[in-house]
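Q: How would the structure tokens look for this protein?
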Amino acid sequence: MTGPDSFQAILGIMLAIALILAGWRMVRGPSFADRFVALDMLTAVAVGFAALTALSTGRGAFLDIALGVALINFIATAAFAVFLERKRKGP
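A: Here is the predicted structure in token form.
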């Protein structure tokens, strides 16, 4: 295993650990907001995995996938923030 290959393997392991921890927080989160932050983290890890896959395979299409997931994640986070603000103000 060469230097870049071992570096990619270490990054993959670190992303897998982040995936497991964020998944655990999503399942066990004490509030709805904590679970949504964990979902936000899961999508960030998915973007990281797509970028790592693009790096290891040399295909730029995985970067397009990462960009699409990041944009959808941003829109979902903004929509959830609006939902929480409306919920806090009450009817």
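The longest helix spans residues 61-89.

The chain has a mean pLDDT of 90.

Upvote if useful.
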